[in-house]
Amino acid sequence: MTVTMDTQGFAELEDALDQLSKSAGKGVLRRSLKKAAAPMVEAAIAKVPVDSGDLKGSITVSTRLAKRQAGKHRRMFRDDRASIEMFLGPSYDLGDGGRHGHLVEFGTEHSAPQPFMRPAWDQDQKAMLDRLSRELWAELDKSIKRAERKAARAAAKG
Predict the structure, then answer these.
(1) DSSP letters spanning 42-57
(2) What's the CA angle centered on 49, arms 48 and 54, to 5 degrees?
(3) pLDDT per residue as tens, the chain (158 positions)
(4) DSSP secondary-structure letter at 78?
(5) Contact predicate 9/136, CB 8 Å
(6) What is the pTM of this model?
């Protein structure tokens, strides 16, 4: 399946991120992504079948994968230390719900699929990208002002 998106403003975003240190820029990206994805987490939770045990409590946004998932994950930007990846879905670290999330989503030989992640994505992807845009610029603005205040304090000290 191919998904096509029309994006704008990345050159301006890159210029604004260049005003910050690499670590501050990564913080901006992480905080923005986490805030923008929160409503999608809620949508996925709402779509989880009632009888799925601890699955609802395991859905989260994180920068980390479980050890087994991380071993199979192929990073798109393997050598780019400035890249940020966030993962949304059932977490193995938050109880047993994450361990069977894929079985609920895709089904098994004995049970029909009961998707919750894909419908949440389909429902919220455009709104999430709009939220991400707003969050990125708000976080950038805060971080740039914070960096300017810090530089002014350092200059005042001599």
Answers:
(1) HHHHHHS-TT-TTHHH
(2) 70
(3) 566 666 676 778 888 888 888 888 888 999 999 999 999 999 999 999 876 678 888 898 988 877 777 777 776 666 665 678 888 988 876 555 567 888 889 999 999 999 999 999 999 999 998 999 899 999 999 998 988 898 899 899 87
(4) T
(5) no
(6) 0.78
